[in-house]
Amino acid sequence: MDDFSETEKEELKDTIESGGGPEDGADSVKDDLPLPAISKRAARRLIQRALVLAGRDRNVRQHIREAKVITLWVLEDWQFEWTAVIERGKVHFDRRPARAPDLTLRWPNEEEFFTALWEGRDPIGSLLVEGNLSLRRFSDPVYSAFCRFMQQVLRHPFDDAENPLI
Fold first, then answer.
1. Does residue 164 lie within any of the structural domains?
2. For the chain, how many helices (H) and strands (E)?
3. What is the side-by-side strand order in the sheet with 68-75?
4. Domain ranges, residue 105
5. CB of 150 within 8 A of CB of 117?
C-alpha cells in the first residue's frame, strides 16, 4: 500500500464508505488500480476482516439468529482453509479447519477467487459446495456479505485503527 499517496488512500476510503457506485466515479477508481499481490498471511488477515464485518451486518445477523452451522472455506491450490462458525446471530472466524463441518465451500483457484472479488464479481462460478445443502439458507447471507466486504477490504486493506492488513 506504500504505492498510494495519502490523498489516494483518503479517496479510496471515502469511495468505499459512501458505497461508491458508477454514478460517482467509483468504477473509474476501481479500474485504475491493479490487484495487489497477496501473500497467504495477508489473505488470512483480509479474509478474517471481511468475515468480522459480515458478522456485524444487521441483515446477516437477522437471518442467522437461529442458526448453528460450521462452515469450512477452502482455496484448494493454496491448500488454504479457514472456518466460519455461524452461531445464534454471530459469525466467528477460526483459522484452523473444522473437523466435521456442516458445509464446505471450495474454490479450486485462489487467483480466480481474489480477482473476481477485486472486480466486484461474486466468485460463485468456481464455487463447489458440499455437505448439508439445506443449511445454505444460513450460510448464503454470510457468503454474500463476505463477498461485499471482501471487495471493500481488498480496496482499503486497513483495520479499524488504520493499521495495514497487507
1. no
2. 6, 5
3. 90-94, 80-87, 68-75, 103-107, 128-131
4. 37-155
5. yes
Residue 114 lies in a domain: yes
Q: What are the pLDDT tens digits along the chain (166 aa)?
A: 455 566 665 665 555 555 544 444 444 444 556 777 888 998 999 999 999 999 999 999 999 998 899 999 999 999 999 999 999 999 999 999 999 999 999 999 988 899 889 888 888 888 999 999 999 999 999 999 999 999 988 888 877 767 767 6
3-state secondary structure of 2: coil
| Number of domains forming the structure of the chain | 2
With cell 437471518, the residue in question is: 63
Joined together, the cell numbers standing for residue 132 give 448439508
Are both 67 and 91 inside the same structural domain? yes
What amino acid is encoded at 97 in this protein?
P
Distance in angstroms (rounded) separating the CA atoms of residues 82 and 133: 19
